[in-house]
Fold each of these.
Amino acid sequence: MDFNRISFRVRYGETDQMGVVYHGNYPQYMEMGRVEWLRGLGISYKEMEENGIMLPVISLSIDYKKSAVYDDLITVETQLKKRPLVKIEFDYKIYNETGEILALGNTVLAFLDTKTKKPVKCPDYILEKIA
Protein backbone atom coordinates (compact mmCIF):
# COMPACT_ATOMS: atom_id res chain seq x y z
CA MET A 1 0.00 0.00 0.00
CA ASP A 2 1.64 3.22 -1.06
CA PHE A 3 -1.09 5.72 -0.11
CA ASN A 4 -3.99 6.21 2.26
CA ARG A 5 -6.85 8.70 2.56
CA ILE A 6 -8.68 9.91 5.64
CA SER A 7 -11.48 12.46 5.77
CA PHE A 8 -12.87 14.49 8.66
CA ARG A 9 -14.66 17.76 9.39
CA VAL A 10 -12.81 20.84 10.58
CA ARG A 11 -13.73 21.48 14.20
CA TYR A 12 -14.50 24.95 15.53
CA GLY A 13 -11.53 24.87 17.92
CA GLU A 14 -9.14 24.46 14.97
CA THR A 15 -10.09 27.82 13.51
CA ASP A 16 -9.42 31.48 14.23
CA GLN A 17 -12.04 34.21 14.70
CA MET A 18 -12.64 34.31 10.95
CA GLY A 19 -13.45 30.58 10.86
CA VAL A 20 -10.21 29.78 9.00
CA VAL A 21 -8.09 26.78 10.06
CA TYR A 22 -5.01 27.93 11.98
CA HIS A 23 -1.89 27.06 9.94
CA GLY A 24 -0.35 25.17 12.86
CA ASN A 25 -3.07 22.50 12.64
CA TYR A 26 -1.91 21.20 9.28
CA PRO A 27 1.07 19.27 10.72
CA GLN A 28 -1.43 17.51 13.04
CA TYR A 29 -3.59 16.64 10.02
CA MET A 30 -0.48 15.21 8.34
CA GLU A 31 0.28 13.19 11.47
CA MET A 32 -3.26 11.80 11.40
CA GLY A 33 -2.68 10.76 7.80
CA ARG A 34 0.65 9.12 8.63
CA VAL A 35 -0.76 7.20 11.60
CA GLU A 36 -3.64 5.91 9.48
CA TRP A 37 -1.24 5.00 6.65
CA LEU A 38 0.69 2.82 9.11
CA ARG A 39 -2.53 1.42 10.59
CA GLY A 40 -3.57 0.44 7.05
CA LEU A 41 -0.47 -1.76 6.96
CA GLY A 42 -1.44 -3.29 10.29
CA ILE A 43 1.16 -1.29 12.25
CA SER A 44 0.36 1.01 15.16
CA TYR A 45 2.65 3.73 16.53
CA LYS A 46 1.99 2.34 20.00
CA GLU A 47 3.18 -1.15 19.03
CA MET A 48 6.23 0.30 17.29
CA GLU A 49 7.19 2.18 20.46
CA GLU A 50 6.54 -0.92 22.58
CA ASN A 51 8.96 -2.73 20.22
CA GLY A 52 11.66 -0.10 20.86
CA ILE A 53 11.23 2.13 17.80
CA MET A 54 10.17 5.76 17.68
CA LEU A 55 9.67 7.99 14.65
CA PRO A 56 10.44 11.65 15.33
CA VAL A 57 9.86 14.16 12.53
CA ILE A 58 13.19 15.54 11.32
CA SER A 59 11.85 17.61 8.42
CA LEU A 60 8.46 19.19 7.70
CA SER A 61 7.35 21.39 4.85
CA ILE A 62 3.92 22.72 3.90
CA ASP A 63 2.88 24.69 0.85
CA TYR A 64 -0.43 26.37 1.69
CA LYS A 65 -2.74 26.83 -1.32
CA LYS A 66 -6.20 27.74 0.01
CA SER A 67 -7.75 28.11 3.46
CA ALA A 68 -9.81 25.38 5.05
CA VAL A 69 -12.71 26.73 7.08
CA TYR A 70 -14.92 25.58 9.91
CA ASP A 71 -17.08 22.54 9.04
CA ASP A 72 -15.24 21.79 5.77
CA LEU A 73 -14.96 18.10 5.05
CA ILE A 74 -11.27 17.73 4.32
CA THR A 75 -9.28 14.76 3.10
CA VAL A 76 -5.64 14.03 3.81
CA GLU A 77 -3.98 11.80 1.23
CA THR A 78 -0.73 10.35 2.54
CA GLN A 79 1.76 8.72 0.20
CA LEU A 80 5.03 6.95 0.91
CA LYS A 81 7.66 8.69 -1.19
CA LYS A 82 10.19 5.84 -1.39
CA ARG A 83 11.19 2.60 0.33
CA PRO A 84 12.44 3.52 3.83
CA LEU A 85 15.94 2.87 5.09
CA VAL A 86 16.88 4.78 8.26
CA LYS A 87 14.36 7.49 7.33
CA ILE A 88 10.83 7.34 6.01
CA GLU A 89 9.39 10.10 3.83
CA PHE A 90 5.77 10.96 3.12
CA ASP A 91 4.04 13.38 0.76
CA TYR A 92 0.61 14.78 1.64
CA LYS A 93 -2.20 16.33 -0.32
CA ILE A 94 -4.93 18.00 1.72
CA TYR A 95 -8.08 18.95 -0.14
CA ASN A 96 -11.70 19.90 0.50
CA GLU A 97 -14.90 18.15 -0.55
CA THR A 98 -14.96 19.94 -3.91
CA GLY A 99 -11.44 18.67 -4.65
CA GLU A 100 -9.67 22.02 -4.22
CA ILE A 101 -6.13 21.53 -2.92
CA LEU A 102 -5.71 23.28 0.43
CA ALA A 103 -2.11 22.30 1.16
CA LEU A 104 0.71 20.10 -0.05
CA GLY A 105 3.17 18.77 2.49
CA ASN A 106 6.15 16.54 3.10
CA THR A 107 7.63 14.98 6.21
CA VAL A 108 10.78 12.99 6.83
CA LEU A 109 10.95 10.88 9.98
CA ALA A 110 13.88 8.91 11.40
CA PHE A 111 13.69 5.45 12.92
CA LEU A 112 15.28 5.73 16.38
CA ASP A 113 15.96 3.18 19.07
CA THR A 114 13.86 4.30 22.07
CA LYS A 115 16.61 3.44 24.58
CA THR A 116 19.73 4.76 22.83
CA LYS A 117 17.99 7.52 20.82
CA LYS A 118 20.26 6.51 17.93
CA PRO A 119 19.14 5.95 14.33
CA VAL A 120 18.34 2.38 13.29
CA LYS A 121 17.27 0.88 10.00
CA CYS A 122 13.61 0.45 9.22
CA PRO A 123 12.39 -2.71 10.96
CA ASP A 124 12.00 -5.73 8.68
CA TYR A 125 8.35 -6.22 9.71
CA ILE A 126 7.55 -2.79 8.25
CA LEU A 127 9.54 -3.40 5.06
CA GLU A 128 7.73 -6.73 4.57
CA LYS A 129 4.33 -5.05 4.84
CA ILE A 130 5.32 -2.30 2.40
CA ALA A 131 6.64 -4.77 -0.21
Note: Residues 90 and 118 are 21 Å apart (CA to CA).
Amino acid sequence: MTSGDRDEITVVLAEDQTMVLEAFAELLGLQPDITVLATATNGPDALTSVTEHDPDVLVTDIEMPGTSGLDVAAELHRRGSRTGVLIVTTFARSGYLRRALNAGVSGYLLKDSPISELADALRKVRAGEKVISKELALAAWDHTDDQLTDRERQLLREVAEGASNRDIARRLHLAEGTVRNYLSTAMAKLHARNRTDAAKIARERGWI
Protein backbone atom coordinates (compact mmCIF):
# COMPACT_ATOMS: atom_id res chain seq x y z
CA MET A 1 0.00 0.00 0.00
CA THR A 2 1.03 3.59 -0.46
CA SER A 3 0.75 6.39 2.11
CA GLY A 4 -2.19 7.72 0.16
CA ASP A 5 -4.15 4.50 0.51
CA ARG A 6 -7.29 5.35 2.47
CA ASP A 7 -7.46 1.97 4.23
CA GLU A 8 -3.86 2.11 5.43
CA ILE A 9 -3.06 3.39 8.93
CA THR A 10 0.37 4.99 9.06
CA VAL A 11 2.19 5.07 12.38
CA VAL A 12 5.29 6.51 14.06
CA LEU A 13 6.44 4.66 17.20
CA ALA A 14 8.27 6.40 20.06
CA GLU A 15 9.68 4.31 22.92
CA ASP A 16 13.03 4.62 24.74
CA GLN A 17 13.34 0.87 25.47
CA THR A 18 14.76 -0.62 22.29
CA MET A 19 13.44 -4.14 22.89
CA VAL A 20 9.89 -2.88 23.47
CA LEU A 21 10.14 -0.57 20.46
CA GLU A 22 11.25 -3.37 18.16
CA ALA A 23 8.56 -5.70 19.49
CA PHE A 24 5.84 -3.11 18.86
CA ALA A 25 7.14 -2.43 15.37
CA GLU A 26 7.29 -6.12 14.48
CA LEU A 27 3.87 -7.01 15.88
CA LEU A 28 2.11 -4.01 14.36
CA GLY A 29 3.83 -4.78 11.07
CA LEU A 30 1.92 -8.07 10.97
CA GLN A 31 -1.38 -6.18 10.79
CA PRO A 32 -2.49 -5.92 7.14
CA ASP A 33 -3.78 -2.36 7.46
CA ILE A 34 -1.02 -0.83 9.62
CA THR A 35 2.32 0.50 8.38
CA VAL A 36 5.08 1.71 10.73
CA LEU A 37 6.78 4.59 8.92
CA ALA A 38 9.45 5.39 11.51
CA THR A 39 10.59 4.81 15.09
CA ALA A 40 12.13 7.10 17.69
CA THR A 41 13.73 6.59 21.09
CA ASN A 42 13.29 10.09 22.50
CA GLY A 43 10.86 13.00 22.42
CA PRO A 44 12.70 15.34 20.02
CA ASP A 45 13.18 12.56 17.47
CA ALA A 46 9.52 11.61 17.78
CA LEU A 47 8.48 15.18 17.00
CA THR A 48 10.87 15.29 14.04
CA SER A 49 9.56 11.97 12.68
CA VAL A 50 5.95 13.10 12.90
CA THR A 51 6.82 16.35 11.12
CA GLU A 52 8.69 14.46 8.40
CA HIS A 53 6.29 11.55 7.82
CA ASP A 54 2.89 13.06 8.74
CA PRO A 55 1.50 9.74 10.09
CA ASP A 56 -2.10 9.06 11.03
CA VAL A 57 -1.07 8.16 14.57
CA LEU A 58 1.91 8.64 16.89
CA VAL A 59 2.23 5.82 19.44
CA THR A 60 4.39 7.06 22.30
CA ASP A 61 5.45 6.27 25.83
CA ILE A 62 5.32 9.02 28.47
CA GLU A 63 8.80 9.05 29.98
CA MET A 64 11.51 9.41 27.33
CA PRO A 65 14.82 11.29 27.13
CA GLY A 66 14.73 14.92 26.08
CA THR A 67 10.98 15.50 25.91
CA SER A 68 8.18 13.42 27.40
CA GLY A 69 5.47 11.86 25.29
CA LEU A 70 2.97 14.23 26.92
CA ASP A 71 5.08 17.23 25.91
CA VAL A 72 5.28 15.93 22.34
CA ALA A 73 1.49 15.49 22.31
CA ALA A 74 0.98 19.02 23.64
CA GLU A 75 3.30 20.47 20.98
CA LEU A 76 1.51 18.61 18.18
CA HIS A 77 -1.81 19.84 19.55
CA ARG A 78 -0.47 23.40 19.63
CA ARG A 79 0.61 23.09 15.99
CA GLY A 80 -2.80 21.80 14.94
CA SER A 81 -1.28 18.56 13.67
CA ARG A 82 -3.65 16.05 12.08
CA THR A 83 -1.70 13.19 13.70
CA GLY A 84 -3.57 11.47 16.53
CA VAL A 85 -1.54 10.59 19.62
CA LEU A 86 -1.93 7.26 21.40
CA ILE A 87 -0.11 6.96 24.73
CA VAL A 88 1.04 3.41 25.57
CA THR A 89 2.66 3.26 29.00
CA THR A 90 3.08 1.33 32.23
CA PHE A 91 1.70 4.23 34.29
CA ALA A 92 -1.92 3.65 35.35
CA ARG A 93 -2.17 7.02 37.11
CA SER A 94 -5.10 9.38 36.86
CA GLY A 95 -2.76 12.37 36.95
CA TYR A 96 -1.03 11.23 33.77
CA LEU A 97 -4.36 10.54 32.12
CA ARG A 98 -5.68 14.01 32.91
CA ARG A 99 -2.49 15.63 31.62
CA ALA A 100 -2.69 13.49 28.49
CA LEU A 101 -6.27 14.53 27.78
CA ASN A 102 -5.35 18.17 28.36
CA ALA A 103 -2.53 17.71 25.83
CA GLY A 104 -5.05 16.59 23.22
CA VAL A 105 -4.20 12.88 23.05
CA SER A 106 -6.64 10.55 21.35
CA GLY A 107 -5.96 7.44 23.40
CA TYR A 108 -4.27 6.01 26.48
CA LEU A 109 -3.46 2.30 26.85
CA LEU A 110 -1.34 0.25 29.24
CA LYS A 111 1.62 -1.76 27.98
CA ASP A 112 0.18 -5.01 29.27
CA SER A 113 -2.72 -4.69 26.80
CA PRO A 114 -2.77 -7.37 24.05
CA ILE A 115 -1.43 -6.31 20.65
CA SER A 116 -4.91 -6.84 19.19
CA GLU A 117 -6.22 -4.13 21.53
CA LEU A 118 -3.43 -1.78 20.45
CA ALA A 119 -4.18 -2.41 16.77
CA ASP A 120 -7.89 -1.84 17.37
CA ALA A 121 -7.08 1.38 19.26
CA LEU A 122 -5.07 2.62 16.28
CA ARG A 123 -8.03 2.02 13.99
CA LYS A 124 -10.34 3.93 16.34
CA VAL A 125 -7.91 6.84 16.70
CA ARG A 126 -7.56 6.98 12.91
CA ALA A 127 -11.37 7.16 12.74
CA GLY A 128 -11.41 10.11 15.14
CA GLU A 129 -12.51 8.22 18.25
CA LYS A 130 -11.10 8.42 21.80
CA VAL A 131 -9.68 5.27 23.40
CA ILE A 132 -8.95 4.88 27.13
CA SER A 133 -8.09 1.70 29.04
CA LYS A 134 -10.91 0.60 31.34
CA GLU A 135 -8.52 0.59 34.31
CA LEU A 136 -7.65 4.22 33.67
CA ALA A 137 -11.22 5.29 33.08
CA LEU A 138 -12.05 3.98 36.56
CA ALA A 139 -8.95 5.57 38.10
CA ALA A 140 -9.91 8.96 36.66
CA TRP A 141 -12.79 9.14 39.12
CA ASP A 142 -10.38 8.84 42.04
CA HIS A 143 -7.95 11.71 41.72
CA THR A 144 -6.55 14.79 43.40
CA ASP A 145 -6.46 17.84 41.18
CA ASP A 146 -2.98 18.85 40.03
CA GLN A 147 -2.24 22.18 41.73
CA LEU A 148 1.32 22.55 40.44
CA THR A 149 2.29 25.26 37.98
CA ASP A 150 4.26 24.39 34.84
CA ARG A 151 7.39 25.93 36.38
CA GLU A 152 6.98 23.89 39.58
CA ARG A 153 6.58 20.72 37.53
CA GLN A 154 9.69 21.60 35.54
CA LEU A 155 11.75 22.08 38.68
CA LEU A 156 10.44 18.91 40.34
CA ARG A 157 11.37 16.92 37.23
CA GLU A 158 14.90 18.27 37.60
CA VAL A 159 14.91 17.28 41.28
CA ALA A 160 13.70 13.79 40.34
CA GLU A 161 16.70 13.51 38.00
CA GLY A 162 19.04 14.28 40.91
CA ALA A 163 19.83 17.93 40.12
CA SER A 164 20.81 20.30 42.94
CA ASN A 165 19.24 23.74 43.33
CA ARG A 166 22.43 25.24 41.93
CA ASP A 167 22.30 22.91 38.89
CA ILE A 168 18.65 23.81 38.28
CA ALA A 169 19.34 27.53 38.57
CA ARG A 170 22.16 27.29 36.04
CA ARG A 171 20.22 25.16 33.54
CA LEU A 172 17.05 27.26 33.67
CA HIS A 173 18.78 30.65 34.03
CA LEU A 174 17.14 31.39 37.37
CA ALA A 175 18.47 32.78 40.63
CA GLU A 176 19.12 30.03 43.17
CA GLY A 177 16.81 31.81 45.62
CA THR A 178 14.03 31.75 43.00
CA VAL A 179 14.49 27.99 42.61
CA ARG A 180 14.22 27.55 46.39
CA ASN A 181 11.02 29.62 46.47
CA TYR A 182 9.39 27.60 43.68
CA LEU A 183 10.33 24.32 45.35
CA SER A 184 9.12 25.52 48.75
CA THR A 185 5.74 26.38 47.26
CA ALA A 186 5.55 22.98 45.58
CA MET A 187 6.49 21.24 48.82
CA ALA A 188 3.70 23.08 50.64
CA LYS A 189 1.13 22.09 48.01
CA LEU A 190 2.21 18.45 48.23
CA HIS A 191 2.63 18.41 52.01
CA ALA A 192 6.13 17.07 51.40
CA ARG A 193 8.96 16.87 53.93
CA ASN A 194 11.61 18.05 51.50
CA ARG A 195 12.32 18.64 47.81
CA THR A 196 13.07 14.97 47.12
CA ASP A 197 9.87 13.88 48.82
CA ALA A 198 7.94 16.47 46.79
CA ALA A 199 9.33 15.10 43.52
CA LYS A 200 8.47 11.55 44.60
CA ILE A 201 4.88 12.45 45.52
CA ALA A 202 4.36 14.42 42.30
CA ARG A 203 5.67 11.51 40.20
CA GLU A 204 3.50 8.96 42.03
CA ARG A 205 0.44 11.10 41.28
CA GLY A 206 1.42 11.47 37.64
CA TRP A 207 1.92 15.23 37.92
CA ILE A 208 5.46 15.28 36.54
Note: The two ends are 40 Å apart (CA to CA).
Amino acid sequence: MRYTIVSDIGRKRALNEDCAAFISRADSYQLAIVADGMGGHNAGDVASKMAVKQLEEYFIEADSASFETTLKTEDWLKKTVKSINSSLYKYSLTHEGCQGMGTTLIAVVFKDTNAVISHVGDSRVYLISSEEVRLITKDHSYVNILVDNGEISEEEAKSHPKKNYILKSLGTESTIEPDSYQVEMIDDTYMLICSDGLSNKLTNEEMQTIVTNTSTLEEKGDELVQLANDLGGEDNITLILLSQSHEEV
Protein backbone atom coordinates (compact mmCIF):
# COMPACT_ATOMS: atom_id res chain seq x y z
CA MET A 1 0.00 0.00 0.00
CA ARG A 2 1.36 3.40 -1.01
CA TYR A 3 0.23 6.45 0.93
CA THR A 4 0.78 10.11 1.66
CA ILE A 5 -0.26 12.08 4.75
CA VAL A 6 -0.90 15.82 4.75
CA SER A 7 -2.13 17.83 7.75
CA ASP A 8 -2.47 21.60 7.45
CA ILE A 9 -3.63 24.21 9.95
CA GLY A 10 -5.65 26.01 7.27
CA ARG A 11 -6.07 29.76 6.86
CA LYS A 12 -8.21 30.69 9.88
CA ARG A 13 -7.34 28.48 12.86
CA ALA A 14 -4.69 29.19 15.50
CA LEU A 15 -4.12 25.49 16.24
CA ASN A 16 -4.19 22.27 14.23
CA GLU A 17 -6.49 19.91 16.17
CA ASP A 18 -6.32 17.18 13.51
CA CYS A 19 -4.02 14.20 13.79
CA ALA A 20 -3.16 11.39 11.36
CA ALA A 21 -0.88 8.36 11.22
CA PHE A 22 -0.05 5.29 9.14
CA ILE A 23 1.45 2.22 10.81
CA SER A 24 2.85 -0.94 9.20
CA ARG A 25 3.44 -4.19 11.07
CA ALA A 26 5.98 -6.89 10.25
CA ASP A 27 3.12 -9.32 9.42
CA SER A 28 1.90 -6.99 6.63
CA TYR A 29 -1.13 -5.59 8.45
CA GLN A 30 -1.35 -1.81 8.15
CA LEU A 31 -3.42 0.85 9.90
CA ALA A 32 -4.42 4.33 8.73
CA ILE A 33 -5.89 6.82 11.23
CA VAL A 34 -7.43 10.28 10.88
CA ALA A 35 -8.81 12.15 13.90
CA ASP A 36 -10.35 15.64 14.02
CA GLY A 37 -10.38 16.97 17.57
CA MET A 38 -12.91 19.33 19.13
CA GLY A 39 -13.24 21.15 22.43
CA GLY A 40 -12.27 24.34 24.20
CA HIS A 41 -8.70 25.67 24.37
CA ASN A 42 -6.31 22.86 23.40
CA ALA A 43 -8.71 20.04 24.33
CA GLY A 44 -9.40 19.03 20.71
CA ASP A 45 -5.69 18.75 20.09
CA VAL A 46 -5.35 16.57 23.19
CA ALA A 47 -8.25 14.32 22.18
CA SER A 48 -7.11 13.65 18.62
CA LYS A 49 -3.49 12.99 19.60
CA MET A 50 -4.53 10.69 22.45
CA ALA A 51 -6.85 8.70 20.18
CA VAL A 52 -4.21 8.24 17.48
CA LYS A 53 -1.42 7.37 19.93
CA GLN A 54 -3.52 4.83 21.84
CA LEU A 55 -4.85 3.19 18.69
CA GLU A 56 -1.33 2.93 17.30
CA GLU A 57 -0.13 1.26 20.51
CA TYR A 58 -3.04 -1.20 20.57
CA PHE A 59 -2.41 -2.08 16.92
CA ILE A 60 1.32 -2.69 17.35
CA GLU A 61 0.73 -4.89 20.41
CA ALA A 62 -2.21 -6.88 18.98
CA ASP A 63 -1.84 -10.56 18.17
CA SER A 64 -1.94 -11.44 14.46
CA ALA A 65 -4.94 -13.67 15.14
CA SER A 66 -6.99 -10.52 15.80
CA PHE A 67 -6.88 -9.75 12.05
CA GLU A 68 -7.14 -13.24 10.51
CA THR A 69 -10.61 -12.56 9.09
CA THR A 70 -12.69 -9.51 8.25
CA LEU A 71 -15.04 -10.33 11.11
CA LYS A 72 -12.18 -10.61 13.63
CA THR A 73 -10.67 -7.35 12.39
CA GLU A 74 -14.01 -5.59 12.69
CA ASP A 75 -14.47 -6.96 16.20
CA TRP A 76 -10.94 -5.88 17.22
CA LEU A 77 -11.51 -2.36 15.88
CA LYS A 78 -14.86 -2.03 17.64
CA LYS A 79 -13.50 -3.19 21.01
CA THR A 80 -10.40 -1.02 20.68
CA VAL A 81 -12.32 2.12 19.71
CA LYS A 82 -14.70 1.57 22.63
CA SER A 83 -11.75 1.21 25.01
CA ILE A 84 -10.13 4.41 23.70
CA ASN A 85 -13.45 6.22 23.99
CA SER A 86 -13.63 5.25 27.67
CA SER A 87 -10.05 6.40 28.21
CA LEU A 88 -10.67 9.79 26.60
CA TYR A 89 -13.92 10.29 28.49
CA LYS A 90 -12.30 9.56 31.86
CA TYR A 91 -9.39 11.86 31.00
CA SER A 92 -11.79 14.70 30.17
CA LEU A 93 -13.44 14.38 33.58
CA THR A 94 -10.18 14.54 35.53
CA HIS A 95 -8.18 17.18 33.65
CA GLU A 96 -8.93 20.87 33.83
CA GLY A 97 -9.64 22.45 30.45
CA CYS A 98 -10.43 19.10 28.82
CA GLN A 99 -14.06 18.79 29.88
CA GLY A 100 -16.20 18.03 26.85
CA MET A 101 -13.25 17.26 24.60
CA GLY A 102 -13.79 14.82 21.78
CA THR A 103 -12.59 13.74 18.38
CA THR A 104 -13.82 12.15 15.20
CA LEU A 105 -12.07 8.94 14.21
CA ILE A 106 -11.46 6.99 11.05
CA ALA A 107 -9.41 3.81 11.53
CA VAL A 108 -8.72 1.51 8.58
CA VAL A 109 -6.94 -1.84 8.88
CA PHE A 110 -5.45 -3.13 5.59
CA LYS A 111 -4.35 -6.61 4.58
CA ASP A 112 -3.51 -6.92 0.90
CA THR A 113 -6.56 -5.51 -0.95
CA ASN A 114 -8.96 -5.84 1.99
CA ALA A 115 -9.79 -2.79 4.13
CA VAL A 116 -11.88 -2.77 7.33
CA ILE A 117 -13.05 0.63 8.53
CA SER A 118 -14.18 1.90 11.94
CA HIS A 119 -15.85 5.30 11.94
CA VAL A 120 -17.06 7.88 14.47
CA GLY A 121 -18.04 11.47 13.62
CA ASP A 122 -17.91 13.33 10.32
CA SER A 123 -14.44 12.58 9.00
CA ARG A 124 -14.82 10.58 5.81
CA VAL A 125 -13.57 7.72 3.65
CA TYR A 126 -13.93 7.96 -0.14
CA LEU A 127 -13.05 5.47 -2.88
CA ILE A 128 -12.04 7.38 -6.00
CA SER A 129 -11.40 6.17 -9.54
CA SER A 130 -11.66 7.70 -13.00
CA GLU A 131 -15.19 6.24 -13.16
CA GLU A 132 -16.65 7.36 -9.84
CA VAL A 133 -16.31 8.94 -6.42
CA ARG A 134 -17.93 6.79 -3.74
CA LEU A 135 -18.44 8.02 -0.18
CA ILE A 136 -18.08 4.96 2.06
CA THR A 137 -18.79 6.40 5.51
CA LYS A 138 -21.96 8.07 6.73
CA ASP A 139 -21.55 11.28 8.76
CA HIS A 140 -22.76 11.22 12.35
CA SER A 141 -24.14 14.74 11.97
CA TYR A 142 -27.35 16.67 12.46
CA VAL A 143 -27.64 17.66 8.79
CA ASN A 144 -27.15 14.07 7.67
CA ILE A 145 -30.22 13.09 9.68
CA LEU A 146 -32.17 15.85 7.91
CA VAL A 147 -30.93 14.59 4.53
CA ASP A 148 -31.86 11.00 5.39
CA ASN A 149 -35.33 12.12 6.44
CA GLY A 150 -35.80 14.05 3.22
CA GLU A 151 -36.11 17.38 5.04
CA ILE A 152 -33.22 19.01 3.16
CA SER A 153 -31.21 18.14 0.06
CA GLU A 154 -27.51 17.24 0.05
CA GLU A 155 -26.89 20.59 -1.62
CA GLU A 156 -28.76 22.44 1.14
CA ALA A 157 -26.78 20.49 3.76
CA LYS A 158 -23.54 22.08 2.55
CA SER A 159 -24.65 25.55 3.67
CA HIS A 160 -26.88 24.61 6.59
CA PRO A 161 -26.14 26.69 9.73
CA LYS A 162 -25.80 23.48 11.78
CA LYS A 163 -23.67 21.56 9.29
CA ASN A 164 -20.85 21.23 11.85
CA TYR A 165 -23.11 19.86 14.61
CA ILE A 166 -21.82 16.33 15.35
CA LEU A 167 -24.10 13.75 16.96
CA LYS A 168 -21.39 11.23 17.82
CA SER A 169 -17.72 11.70 18.67
CA LEU A 170 -15.02 9.83 20.55
CA GLY A 171 -14.62 10.83 24.21
CA THR A 172 -17.73 12.94 24.76
CA GLU A 173 -19.88 10.15 26.18
CA SER A 174 -19.04 7.23 28.47
CA THR A 175 -19.93 4.64 25.82
CA ILE A 176 -19.98 4.66 22.03
CA GLU A 177 -20.93 2.42 19.11
CA PRO A 178 -18.68 2.98 16.07
CA ASP A 179 -19.84 2.17 12.55
CA SER A 180 -18.02 -0.52 10.55
CA TYR A 181 -17.44 -0.94 6.83
CA GLN A 182 -15.48 -3.33 4.62
CA VAL A 183 -14.18 -2.53 1.12
CA GLU A 184 -11.78 -3.95 -1.45
CA MET A 185 -8.89 -1.79 -2.64
CA ILE A 186 -8.27 -2.55 -6.31
CA ASP A 187 -5.72 -1.16 -8.76
CA ASP A 188 -6.53 2.26 -10.20
CA THR A 189 -8.76 3.03 -7.22
CA TYR A 190 -7.65 5.41 -4.48
CA MET A 191 -8.82 5.66 -0.89
CA LEU A 192 -9.09 9.17 0.51
CA ILE A 193 -9.45 9.49 4.29
CA CYS A 194 -10.01 13.09 5.36
CA SER A 195 -11.27 15.50 7.98
CA ASP A 196 -14.18 17.81 7.15
CA GLY A 197 -11.74 20.63 6.51
CA LEU A 198 -11.27 18.99 3.12
CA SER A 199 -14.67 17.40 2.43
CA ASN A 200 -16.57 20.61 3.29
CA LYS A 201 -14.60 22.59 0.70
CA LEU A 202 -14.12 20.32 -2.32
CA THR A 203 -16.77 18.84 -4.59
CA ASN A 204 -16.57 15.19 -5.63
CA GLU A 205 -15.57 16.36 -9.10
CA GLU A 206 -12.71 18.47 -7.76
CA MET A 207 -11.43 15.56 -5.66
CA GLN A 208 -11.66 13.18 -8.61
CA THR A 209 -9.84 15.55 -10.98
CA ILE A 210 -6.89 15.88 -8.62
CA VAL A 211 -6.71 12.28 -7.41
CA THR A 212 -6.83 10.76 -10.92
CA ASN A 213 -4.37 13.17 -12.56
CA THR A 214 -0.82 12.14 -13.52
CA SER A 215 0.94 13.70 -10.53
CA THR A 216 2.68 11.64 -7.84
CA LEU A 217 0.67 10.55 -4.81
CA GLU A 218 2.44 13.16 -2.68
CA GLU A 219 1.68 15.92 -5.17
CA LYS A 220 -1.98 14.91 -5.27
CA GLY A 221 -2.22 15.17 -1.48
CA ASP A 222 -0.65 18.62 -1.53
CA GLU A 223 -2.94 19.75 -4.38
CA LEU A 224 -6.06 18.68 -2.46
CA VAL A 225 -5.00 20.65 0.62
CA GLN A 226 -3.96 23.65 -1.46
CA LEU A 227 -7.37 23.81 -3.16
CA ALA A 228 -9.18 23.59 0.22
CA ASN A 229 -7.06 26.51 1.41
CA ASP A 230 -7.65 28.45 -1.81
CA LEU A 231 -11.40 28.00 -1.26
CA GLY A 232 -11.21 29.54 2.22
CA GLY A 233 -9.31 27.16 4.48
CA GLU A 234 -11.60 27.92 7.42
CA ASP A 235 -10.77 24.64 9.18
CA ASN A 236 -7.80 22.36 9.72
CA ILE A 237 -7.29 20.13 6.67
CA THR A 238 -6.00 16.56 7.04
CA LEU A 239 -5.88 13.63 4.65
CA ILE A 240 -4.37 10.25 3.97
CA LEU A 241 -4.41 9.30 0.28
CA LEU A 242 -3.75 5.62 -0.46
CA SER A 243 -3.23 3.52 -3.57
CA GLN A 244 -2.50 -0.12 -4.39
CA SER A 245 -0.86 0.89 -7.66
CA HIS A 246 2.94 0.76 -7.87
CA GLU A 247 3.15 2.81 -11.05
CA GLU A 248 3.44 6.21 -9.35
CA VAL A 249 6.80 7.35 -8.08
Note: The radius of gyration is 17 Å.
